[in-house]
Amino acid sequence: MAKEDTEVIENPENPTEVVTESLGEKPADEDAKVASSEKKKKKKKKKSNIKNIALLYPDEKYPEGQWMDYHQDFNLARTTDEEKRYLARDKDHEQRWNDMRKGAEIHRRVRKNLQNKLKPDMTLTDVVNTVEDATRKFTGQDANGDHVKLPKSQGIGFPTGVSLNHCAAHYTPNAGDKMVLRYEDVMKVDIGVQVNGYIVDCAWTVAFDHKYDNLLEAVREATYTGIREAGIDVRLTDIGEAIQEVMESYEVELNGTTYQVKPCRNLCGHNIAPYRIHGGKSVPIVKNGDTTKMEEGEHFAIETFGTTGRGFVVPGGECSHYAKNDGPLPTPNLSRAKALLKTIDENFGTLPFCRRYLDRLGEDKYLFALNNLVKQGIVQDYPPLNDVVGSYTAQFEHTILLHPHKKEVVSKGDDY
Ligand code: HZT
Ligand code: MN
Ligand code: MN
């Protein structure tokens, strides 16, 4: 990695707009000089505004997300005295909220950096490396001595999803993947950032071709509907029903055929537990009859998937995503599997990981051992999830926090 020789000065009004100032020998009018010399300009090191985010927030207080009122009746009845008690209760979790806000602020910066660089003909490997290198730098994941806790106390929350077209979720390149992003593709970018095990799970859909605009709008509106419906004591099936109604109210015309947008009915949102991407509750995107309720203090990923295909996904293709199961687990019966599990325990714990992360740790020829851990139920595999070939799927996802008095869309940005 190129050594940084620049100081980044944030414009607090617009966190994406940065002013870079030279340090040391370079004169202040350097930019003007360089402009007159193309050769010199090409040689000049690209200035990066990606550095440990803690340096930009010396008081370690991270910005709040978008606050939303609960709109259901039972919440409107709250009195001022009750309101005070809610606020007192909320204070008990202040560190947790702050950790999630830090993860969300990193997420916004990571995705803004990618959005500035994304273009057709990039390889998917370039896309995920752009995301993951930025996440590592913003969190200080790779800084020496910064993080002694294992698994790492902050960093990548799960493998970066870059699922194309009929593939809705859980695609990330394995080593040697030569897949390229094309102008006609519909790509779901799903990025995870974790701080002290609190995971921000947030995704959007990229399409260069405007013919997909209605598909993307259907899914964006369906996700915001899910977010508006979410609340303490709200039944999960009711959220699914509202999402479905909005999603199905959209049509998209592609190459002369009109499709009603369908939810991918076997995909869903979920609550998130410390170091665990799914905490046991699923938020459906269709009416499914699940009367389980959301509860105070919970942390959910609200995500919806829309498709021009058949409306459900099946696992298929080479697997890249894995996560260690939690609870009492058997001991691996192969020594190679036992050694691999040690690497997993030390680096990921129960956080999802992918084969590329094992490669960069120096693991080699581990596939037999990894498959063995899956067979023994120690590790769960998460293969790519696909609708029918030729279909197009889109996704939008935010992480929300159910505070006692209000909900917070912690990952909300000015992009989505
Ligand atoms: C699993 C493995 C990962 C969780 C949802 C999701 C991406 O479909 C209960 C409900 C990352 C995430 C997940 F590496 N999945 N959100 N973002 N994928 S899920 C699920 O397996 S479990 C939904
Ligand atoms: Mn996600
Ligand atoms: Mn999710």
From TrEMBL:
Give the compositionally biased regions (Basic and acidic residues). Answer: 23-38
Question: What's a Gene Ontology MF term here?
Answer: initiator methionyl aminopeptidase activity
Cofactor(s) required for function per UniProt: Co(2+); Zn(2+); Mn(2+); Fe(2+)
Keyword rRNA-binding found:
no
Residues holding a divalent metal cation 1: D190, D201, E397
Cellular component GO terms held in the UniProt record = cytoplasm
What spans are recorded as compositionally biased (Basic residues)? 39-48
Q: Which reaction does it catalyse?
A: Release of N-terminal amino acids, preferentially methionine, from peptides and arylamides
Where is the protein found, in the record's own terms?
A: Cytoplasm
**Residues annotated for a divalent metal cation 2 binding in this entry:** D201, H270, E303, E397
Q: Which UniProt keywords apply?
A: Aminopeptidase, Cytoplasm, Hydrolase, Metal-binding, Protease
- Residues bound to substrate are H170, H278
The free-text note explaining how the cofactor binds reads: Binds 2 divalent metal cations per subunit. Has a high-affinity and a low affinity metal-binding site. The true nature of the physiological cofactor is under debate. The enzyme is active with cobalt, zinc, manganese or divalent iron ions. Most likely, methionine aminopeptidases function as mononuclear Fe(2+)-metalloproteases under physiological conditions, and the catalytically relevant metal-binding site has been assigned to the histidine-containing high-affinity site.
Is-annotated flag, keyword Metal-binding? yes
What's an example GO BP annotation here? proteolysis
Q: Which Gene3D superfamilies match?
A: Creatinase/methionine aminopeptidase superfamily (3.90.230.10), Winged helix-like DNA-binding domain superfamily/Winged helix DNA-binding domain (1.10.10.10)
Protein EC: 3.4.11.18
Q: Which residues form the Peptidase M24 domain?
A: 99-313
The entry's function note states: Cotranslationally removes the N-terminal methionine from nascent proteins. The N-terminal methionine is often cleaved when the second residue in the primary sequence is small and uncharged (Met-Ala-, Cys, Gly, Pro, Ser, Thr, or Val).
**Which family is this sequence assigned to?**
Belongs to the peptidase M24A family. Methionine aminopeptidase eukaryotic type 2 subfamily.
Task: Write down what this protein is called.
Answer: Methionine aminopeptidase 2
| Originating species | Lachancea fermentati
